[in-house]
Amino acid sequence: MKFEDETQNLKARMVIIHGLVIAILAVLGVRLYYLQVVNGDYYAERAENQRIRRLRIPAPRGAIFDRNGKLLVDSRSTYNIILSREDMKGRDWNALVEPLAEGLGVSPDILREHFDEASRQPAFEEVTVKEGAGAADLAWVDAHTLEYPMLLVREQPQRRYPDNGVLAHVLGYVGEISPEQLKQPKYKDYTENPYHPGDIIGQEGLEATYDRYLRGQDGYREVEVDSRGRIQRELADVPPQPGQDLVTTIDLDIQLAAEEQLKNSPTKRGVIVVMNPQNGEILAMASYPTFDPNLFSQRISTPEGRKEANALLRDPLTPLFNRAIRGRYPPGSTWKPLMATAGLQQGAITLKNSHLVCGGGITIGNKFTRCMGSHGAPDLRTAIRVSCDAYFYRLGLKMGLDGIEKMVDEFDLNKKTGVDLPHELVSWTPSREFKARFNPRDPEWRDIDTVYASFGQVYDFVTPLASLRAHSAIANGGRLYVPHLLLEARPVAEVGPFPARPRRVFDQTEPKIINIPEDQHHLVVDGMWAVVNEAGTGTAARINGFDIAGKTGTAQVVGLGKDTGKNKDHSWFVSYAPAFNPEISMIALIENVGFGGKFAAPAVHNVYEAYLAKAHPELADHSAETAKNNPAAQGSRSNPSANGPAH
Amino acid sequence: MLTLLAVAISSFGTWMIFNAQPDAPFWKKQIIGIAISLALMLAVSFTDYRKLVHIAPAFYIFGLALLVVVLIPHVGLKINGQRCWIGVPGLGQFQPSEFMKIPTVLMLARYFGRPRSTALTIKEIVVGCGILALPVGLIMLEPDAGQSLTYFPLLAVVLFLSSVRMWLVIAALVLGTASVPGMWYVGKHTGLIKPYQQERINVILDPENADRRGFGYHTWQSIVTVGKGGIKGSAAKGDASQSALKFLPEPHTDFIFAVTAENTGFVGCVLLLLAYAVLLTKLIHGARRAPDRTGMLVIMAIVGGLAFQIFINVGMALGMLPVIGVPLPLMSAGISAILSTFVAIGFAVSIRLRRFVN
């Protein structure tokens, strides 16, 4: 100190200040060390996260075609006009109703309803003003951005399914992946093209089975944004790779014809499946009633859509249900060709002597089970042609339950067909266990049970597809193919980081071979041919020049005598053609209408017409004439049906 | 030496201003500001500080007049709700509250600079408070709480070195510390501390869970920016900086330290803090060798003011203190601030030079 002033420890006080200054700087340094050295990486990441945004570019989903290249399903961009709630804060909703209703052509009542609903929904849910907005609507929104800044246009790729529920059960539908699904190994462990929350995936039908083919690889744009979210520059641009297009085995014309038949049936409920018996390709699979898959792909996000979906789920007529693979029906007399084939195979009857007594019925213990007619002692061909129940009672008794079970196993009726659709059910077939479960009060298997099981009632419940598959094996001489709907998944070229995806076809394994000697095969087919072409039960299906072989069936829904009204029997017809060189097989089931020959057979006839028009036009012309004669022909044959319960 | 250090820090600061806002003219203005400041500083250095202290009341009254003028609408420019700028044609704007620190320091030094042998009297304390109260009161009217806060350490240092009784110092410290939680509680429940002010404090106590998009935004972004710098800084990495993307608000003024931290990392920041330490230490050494009590008080008051501003500003950038608009000496863009800091250092140089002349 130059000036002499040592009082009050001036020197010490200056040292204190100096110390304080250094201490303050040291504290700052320590804090700096903590932020930058200890936690630097953490904050660098935080900075990165707020700086870089990854904008997903959704990949277009593959389209679905029929076997002739007709488009069945595609994705198209649709536009929804929505209200941003952010911009609605403090604004009067009601004041918007009139101008929006007028400008966008929506009903003011519906708008009011939407707004009402919106007030009860969580804030993040968007308020839809108009779905599927057209060019004029978009222009209107654009022109009024200043007045109505809360209006936003949202592009939405939407899956478009055919109208009127055509092919709905086969195609299925897409929907947002659920949190539960995300946890399933099927989705969780698929690393090749990982599933993310919010992804739209196939939920039903082919959309679900072949989701991995149909789904593309999403691309993305990586951008740097500023604090207001404005894009500053693009860091990466990875284009999406579209999904693979699917070509199905379906022939749309035949499908439409099949659906037409069901739609025009008295109950409008039933199944028609058309297949190529030589390779298992399914040409048509119709299940009625049907539903509109567009509901799930487009409207499910709206309150009305949800209401509609719930109504579908609760509908007692089960329109969502694919009857072809999930419907289990007593096969009735369509069971007989299988019994006949197995009976010959197992030696219960022989080619030389296939006669069994009809006798108008059979007495087991003190119970008489009657036949629908009195057929004397027919041979197998006749028994099939006239659908003699008593013949098959006795055949069943000769084969025994073991023989029937062996048949079931041979024809894979106790297994899934392996069709490439989700949720297929296994048929129920006769066995001691099944009876014990079915009838716990009398669990013992008795001869009368064998009788029932041998003509397709009580213990037999088959899915139409399993039945068609078994009959197709009879048709082709013993080859059980896996029915399928995939013809090919078309290849997709390499895009950016995503490798090319090769063409895929259905993985058809070697067919299961059932050893049916040629002469036995010939006899059964001949019997079935006679059903249609020789005063049998199925002449309503007959087409001149095209040898259809078939078998009618009438499935009891309830006990005898009560088969009226909504408890009427199911009407079956299973067939293939040409009889000795089959190229097409077909099964039809019409629910609760009655006799098989009267409803299912004519339906099948008309679907064959549609097939012939394409495959054999020269026959189609010809058969058009027989179609005209059909009602008359039908009338003359309706008499036998009045006599008995089961055909 | 002092001059060199000051020029070095302010040049470094200009580089950071450039980093913060390369497209804005702030860094060019800063260079001009430094040049003017340097000239003025040299002028002050070669003037006898005692003459200036002698006419300090004139400066003081002139400064007060400016603080009044700034409050007049249309003369004082209103920016961000604060009327603390005076527009000067051709030069831009200046902030009287920055300059007013110098006359205040001179006045305090003049009043307390007489040789003393006894402890401070109550009267002396009251007069000291009065000298401070006039400018602080006017600045509060602007209102600019941050700037007025920076006046208190000037008085505190002067009183401390003017033999205020130690028990008073300790009592003030204890009372001040103890009253903080009490004031917080009372303020929160009476509404005197507004929700946004509470939020600014919450974000310091718990940045992860505070409202980082609202009033905690500044602090959180500053912490992230500082942390992101890491050890060596990200200037070389070529990443777009927090300030370029406008995540960091006021990067060239209040948050210039965060920009420094992002660009030069821990190394650069520690060097800067060391430079401040050397600068302040040099000033304190100068004070010790001052030819008289007045000179000593001038330098020490300047030291107190600078240290306080550094602490408030850097503490805020590091998320230790709530957001208070106080510039970082020699670093933040702003001609007024740079000018007043350089002039202050000019005084210190002048005082050091006098010891030889004396």
Verbal overview:
The complex is a heterodimer of chains A (647) and B (358). Chain A has 647 residues and is of the alpha+beta class. Chain A contains 23 helices and 20 strands. Chain A folds into 3 domains: 7-53; 74-160, Penicillin-binding protein 2a (Domain 2) (Alpha-Beta Complex); 262-309 and 321-486 and 510-643, DD-peptidase/beta-lactamase superfamily (Beta-lactamase, 3-Layer(aba) Sandwich). Helix content of chain A is 40%, strand content 17%. In chain A, β13 (361-364) and β14 form a beta hairpin. A 3-stranded antiparallel beta sheet of chain B has the order 1-2-3. The longest helix of chain B is centred in the C-terminal third of the chain and has 33 residues, at 256-288. Chain B has one domain (2-357). Chain B is mostly helical. Chain B is globular. At the A-B interface, α1 and α2 of A face α9, α12, α13 and α14 of B.
Helix content bin of chain A:
40-55%
The CATH topology of the largest domain in chain A comes to: Beta-lactamase
Which secondary-structure class do the elements of chain A indicate? alpha+beta
CATH architecture designation of the largest domain in chain A: 3-Layer(aba) Sandwich
SSE topology string of chain B: HHHHEEEHHHHHHHHHHH
Identify the overall geometry of chain A: elongated
- In the CATH hierarchy, what is the superfamily of the largest domain in chain A? DD-peptidase/beta-lactamase superfamily
The total tally of domains of chain B equals 1
Q: Structural class per helix/strand content of chain B?
A: mainly alpha
Mean pLDDT of chain B: 83
Main sheet: strands, sense, barrel of chain A: 6 strands, mixed
The mean pLDDT of chain A is 85
The number of distinct β-strands of chain A equals 20
Provide the gyration radius of chain B in Å: 21 Å
Approximate shape of chain B: globular
Write down how many β-strands of chain B occur, each being a DSSP E stretch of 2 or more residues.
3
What percentage of the residues of chain A does DSSP assign to strands (E)?
15-25%
Oligomeric category? heterodimer
The N- to C-terminal Cα distance of chain A equals 127 Å
